[in-house]
Design brief:
The complex is a heterodimer of chains A (273) and B (299).
Chain A (H helix, E strand, L loop, with lengths): L16 H4 L3 E5 L9 H10 L25 E7 L6 E7 L7 H5 L5 E3 L5 E3 L20 E2 L10 E2 L5 H5 L5 H5 L5 E5 H17 L5 E4 L11 E6 L18 H25 L3
Parallel strand pairs in A: 1-10
Antiparallel strand pairs in A: 1-8, 2-3, 4-5, 6-7, 9-10
Chain B lengths: L25 H24 L4 H25 L18 H31 L4 H31 L4 H4 L4 H20 L5 H23 L12 H23 L3 H27 L2 H9 L1
Helix pairs in contact in B: 1-2, 1-4, 1-6, 1-9, 2-3, 3-4, 4-6, 6-7, 6-9, 7-8, 8-9
Classes of the chains: A alpha+beta (273), B mainly alpha (299).
Chain lengths: 273, 299
């Protein structure tokens, strides 16, 4: 891509993905990120996400800390000795194909929308907290007091409201380097692969596409490039949707329940004259 | 430049990969109350259906009904938005243990409370000359419903923890339902013993559940997963789980074998309650431990 191409990028154009039910997502390329945190700010601004504390972490230039109920984009800062040693990684909800939070939600507050994003209906969520322990990426969380909307679970909406109006999500719109690309998922996957190849050819041999399609999450709607071990970025190498544990856990529960009933009957039958 | 010899924290500056459970003190207490109530219904059915003791059945049904009434209060209190507790019944999702559990609790209440009302009015019905054979038949049907939903109410909480992303929990997803179910049955028998029903079937149940708890405790201690489930052996959670396992297993069993059933029942109840708190504390610690998450991926 040449300088200036971004002004004609489809990333910025109006679209009708929602009406056409095109599966969309983010491709976040840390090799283009300059760590400006415009995505974090644009997200907070557009979505009315409340302030959630000002702490000095000492972790490079990252004082945001982690994704959570009131942080839906989070730029991670790493300082290494390698090429591209000072690297930035804008993390976001992965919008999993098999989403732990969505499966776990007992109220049906969390749903999958027309473009394949995982969306929390704030007027339905009763704050049970089960999605919190079901997200393999540690994204969704319950908002604590005294923040507005406290008690409910919150996370990235993939700017569903903007998309309905044909607009690009706020983070991608604000990103000055188009490190955050928004568009049809299939196109982004191709773009990510091509970019990884290009960077590898230029000597960044540790570049990989982070798009876990083989585990039980069956792929995500937010794909990334990683430089080096994804665990350095706090990303699991093999994220699992906890629904994959249901069968064995329920088998144990049914076995125990049956055994308890049989044992209790036996105990009372034995005592009969 | 050479890299320094300082050991770097795991993951991203040692920050948690997962979010810790937000549940407060009500949830482990509910695990205990709901489980004990559920297994009490099983005891009530057995005692009545086998004509062993109406008195045991009556007390057991009272325990079940009180638990059925208290459980939703505890669960609603823990919610971030308690006024919306009824949204739990907006849908049924079989792939969500939380949803299955909410419906189980409704079913349990729907069987237990009418069963108790019917049992309490049997003598009045007899005096009024209304056919008690029909009433007894209906009572057994209601109790069967209460027992079936009850034994699942006591075990599903293990699935609730086991089917999550928390390493200390999902690595023990087969153990948890067994442990919670056995602890619930033993708690129900213990409560009835303490309520003055010093009967052989209840003594046998306490002996059997304490023995099983001893076996499960050994299984948990030997079935370790190294770093991945180290939260079960460290800090507050580690000590709570060890103390709880000693109380429900060896301590309760030793007392019961000496025919000291009151101390045995007290030890078992205390251990069963503490174990639920221990597992929640362990889940919190495990979620905050990035090394545990990465170690669990390699298993």
């Amino acid at each position: 891509m040449a300088i200036g191409d971004g002004t004609r990028s489809p990333n910025q154009a109006r679209h009708d993905f929602v009406a056409k039910q095109v599966r969309v997502g983010f491709f976040t390329d840390p090799s283009l990120c300059i760590g400006c945190k415009a995505c974090e700010v644009a997200c907070k601004e557009w979505n009315g996400v409340p302030e959630d504390g000002c702490r000095f972490t000492g972790n490079s230039y990252d004082n945001t800390g982690q994704l959570g109920a009131s942080t839906w984009r989070h730029v991670k800062f790493l300082e290494n000795d390698e090429p591209l040693g000072w690297s930035f990684f804008s993390d976001v909800c992965k919008h999993c194909e098999v989403a732990g939070c969505l499966e776990a939600c007992p109220t049906g507050a969390i749903l999958r929308n027309e473009v394949g994003a995982v969306y929390v209906q704030d007027d339905v969520c009763n704050g049970c907290g089960y999605c919190v322990v079901s997200c393999p990426f540690g994204v969704i969380d319950r908002r604590p007091e005294p923040q507005p909307g406290a008690g409910g679970a919150y996370k990235c909406t993939l700017c569903y409201d903007r998309q309905i109006a044909g607009l690009t999500p706020a983070c991608a719109k604000a990103c000055p380097t188009e490190s955050i690309a928004f568009g049809p998922l299939d196109e982004l996957r191709e773009k990510a692969k091509a970019r990884a190849k290009e960077l590898q050819a230029r000597g960044l041999t540790s570049v990989r596409v982070y798009d876990p399609q083989h585990g039980s999450v069956r792929g995500t709607h937010a794909i990334f490039l990683t430089l080096g071990d994804p665990r350095r970025l706090g990303l699991p190498r093999r994220p699992q949707a906890p629904t994959s544990y249901l069968a064995s856990a329920w088998a144990a529960a049914l076995f125990t329940a049956a055994l308890a009933v049989a044992g209790t009957f036996a105990a009372f039958a034995m005592a009969l004259p | 430049m050479t890299s320094t010899s300082v050991e770097e924290p795991a993951g991203y500056y040692g920050a948690p990969v997962l979010k810790a459970p937000v549940w407060t003190w009500e949830v482990p207490l509910y695990f205990f109350v709901g489980g004990t109530a559920g297994m009490s219904a099983v005891i009530a059915l057995s005692s009545l259906a086998l004509h062993a003791s109406v008195q045991i059945a009556r007390t057991a049904l009272w325990i079940a009904a009180l638990g059925a009434a208290l459980s939703p209060v505890l669960l609603a209190k823990d919610l971030g938005r308690p006024a919306r507790f009824y949204n739990m019944l907006r849908v049924f999702k079989r792939r969500s243990p939380m949803s299955v559990g909410a419906w189980l609790l409704v079913l349990f209440g729907a069987f237990t409370l009418p069963a108790l009302a019917l049992l309490e009015s049997l003598s009045w019905l007899a005096r009024a000359g209304i056919g008690t054979s029909h009433a007894t038949g209906l009572l057994v049907v209601l109790l069967a419903g209460a027992a079936i939903s009850g034994c699942l109410l006591a075990t599903y909480t293990g699935v609730l923890l086991g089917a999550t992303v928390i390493p200390a929990w999902f690595l023990h997803r087969r153990f948890l339902p067994m442990h919670f179910g056995v602890a619930s049955l033993g708690s129900a028998a213990s409560l009835l013993l303490l309520a003055g029903h010093d009967a052989r079937p209840l003594r046998a149940l306490l002996l059997a559940t304490a023995s099983t708890e001893l076996l499960l405790g050994v299984l948990l201690e030997t079935g370790r997963h190294g770093k991945a489930d180290r939260a079960l052996r460290r800090g507050l959670a580690g000590w709570a789980l060890r103390a709880a396992a000693l109380a429900t297993g060896p301590a309760a069993l030793a007392c019961a074998l000496q025919h000291w059933f009151v101390p045995a029942a007290v030890a078992f109840l205390g251990g069963a309650l503490l174990a639920r708190y221990g597992w929640i504390w362990a889940g919190r610690a495990s979620a905050r431990d990035p090394e545990a998450v990465f170690a669990a991926e390699e298993l």
